[in-house]
Amino acid sequence: MNNPEESKIWSVRQSADLYGIDEWSSGYFGVSPRGDVVVRASTPEGEANVSLMEIVDGLQQRGLQMPVLLRLENIVDSRISILNDSFAHAIESSGYRGQYRGAFPIKVNQQKHVIAEIARFGERYNHGLEAGSKAELMIALATITNRESVIICNGYKDAEFISLGLQARKLGFKCFFVLETLTELQFVIERSRALGIEPLIGVRLKLSTKVEGHWSADSGDRSLFGLNTNELVTVIDTLRDANLLHCFQLLHFHLGSQIPNIRSIRTGVLEACRYYIELVGEGAPLGYLDLGGGLAIDYDGTCSTNGHSRNYSVQEYCIDVVESIQESLDAHGIAHPTIVTESGRATVAHTAVLLFNILDVTHFEPTALPAELPANCHEMIANLWHTLNVICVANLQESYNDVIYYRDKIRDLFNSGDINLRHRVLGENIYWAGLQKIASLLPQVKRIPAELESLPQMLADIYYGNFSVFQSLPDSWAIGQVFPVMPIHRLNEEPTRQAIIADLTCDCDGKLQKFASPEGESTTLALHPIKHGEEYYIGVFLVGAYQETLGDLHNLFGDTNVASVRINPDSSIDFVHELHGDSISDVLTYVEYNPDALYEQFRQTAENAVRDGIITLADRQLMLAAYSEGLRGYTYFEK
Ligand SMILES: *Cc1c(COP(=O)(O)O)cnc(C)c1O
């Protein structure tokens, strides 16, 4: 796009390619001919396209200000269907004689409305829930009504947890206790005897299969979770002695989340099958093989094993799993188990988009330089000036070294009183012009020297977004997770600025500066220049998994507004659920303040000021009204 003639014509296709939307969106999002991001929702009567800008308008008319977490119900429906239909298809095409049962892990998104949608759309597939704590089990028991669905209890379980799960058995729930430790087994046996209810028991294996990616520590010998081989044998012996071996019906393993490589999944399944065969030989009935989570999302659209992506599709995952189990067990004449997966990320990541507006921009424009240097310049400034004028593709690293060297010399001269402020400023300006020139030539070199890689980011604009990374995208801060980020409108215009995005917190980590692109990770994002008097909206996509509950109150930015929408076959939008985010009062109470008491303290301060003649009574009224309204307001930037 160096040719100015060419850059006048910018197509929405170019935007789609630039942001890689077709690569990462799994078909749920696209760009409309008008240049908006659209949701492509499957409905009972075919696909309906709705612009995110139309949804933003609708939200604003309903008083829901940015930032908003937008949930798209149609996508929840679609994700549940894809997972279940893909397993059904793999089972049918390979002649597997067993079923699939999904169990959504509640920890991945515990929000009531999300769990309710999963239960509703999952009903026809007997999709169940996975609980990792007592609180999550309570959600599961109150939500699941279908007795064919499984409830899988993972995590450390005390006697109370176990009693509750046993009672659920009495109600007909297929509620499995997956043993993480041997101590739990004692509790289970003891509570089961005390209540006279037989448990459904599963065991979590510690496999030796190691996987790549951020969650690699969940697998292998040093994994925190699961039983080793010795403990497994103890479980069998203990259950046999207690006459409960027939209750051992499920074998579980979980290699970690976001497993990038399908080959590790297959290796894990094959290893688990070896245990399955041995356990059946030992007299455990089994019947369920639970693969845990790990089904990954292509966050950056590269279809690779780089940790933000994966080298397989849901369909391929299902076929590999089904066929691996089938081949292993057929060789031993063992009946095919019901396959359980606890896919969380793959079920909900696509279903939510974080939307926010840009409040301000810092442009990085170097100050214009004089046509020639003033006569009385110090030699070091003249050297720097000369360096600037000879920068070319062939000497980028050398020029960079020189530019930094002379800049430092000029700073030393200023510190020792040898040059004045004006000359120091001139030196700094030449320095920035030098960096800009080097950065502008980088695209022309084949291999960019390591030191120069960060130059574009150093020179990028800063767009200030109305959101908090810590509240809404905690994984981006905590584990360097990359989410797709792009403007949701103006995609028929060329985005001519290179930027990073800063949030509202006063924290140097409160920013987005790693962006996915089909060409690989980038440290800046192309954005449009802001138009005066017009909002500019950014969407962060694939944020439906893990982000909400892990978010925190850094700088007391609270929960954002949330809206769930359903898109109808005629492309109309139902705003099915809206949730106003935390008010300032809300977040203050989280840190133990009493908003009424705060108001009263402020009232007294104002009252004293009236008494001392500093303000008038009318001032007092205005101030108290502002304080009181502030307490009720949104923690983010309001219009
Ligand atoms: C976290 C977790 C899951 C969910 O993993 P995803 O990668 O999100 O599918 C499933 N099972 C267990 C035991 C987990 O700890």
TrEMBL record:
Residues 584-637 form the Arginine decarboxylase C-terminal helical domain. Residues 377-455 form the Arginine decarboxylase helical bundle domain. The keyword S-adenosyl-L-methionine does not apply. InterPro entries: Ala_racemase/Decarboxylase_C, Arg_decarb_HB, Arg_decarbox_C, Arg_decrbxlase, De-COase2_N, De-COase2_pyr-phos_BS, Orn/DAP/Arg_de-COase, PLP-binding_barrel. The keyword Coiled coil does not apply. Residues 99-349 form the Orn/DAP/Arg decarboxylase 2 N-terminal domain. GO terms for molecular function: arginine decarboxylase activity. It is an enzyme of class 4 (lyase). Pfam families: Arg_decarb_HB (PF17810), Arg_decarbox_C (PF17944), Orn_Arg_deC_N (PF02784). Belongs to the Orn/Lys/Arg decarboxylase class-II family. SpeA subfamily. Catalyzes the biosynthesis of agmatine from arginine. PANTHER family: ARGININE DECARBOXYLASE, BIOSYNTHETIC ARGININE DECARBOXYLASE. This is Arginine decarboxylase.
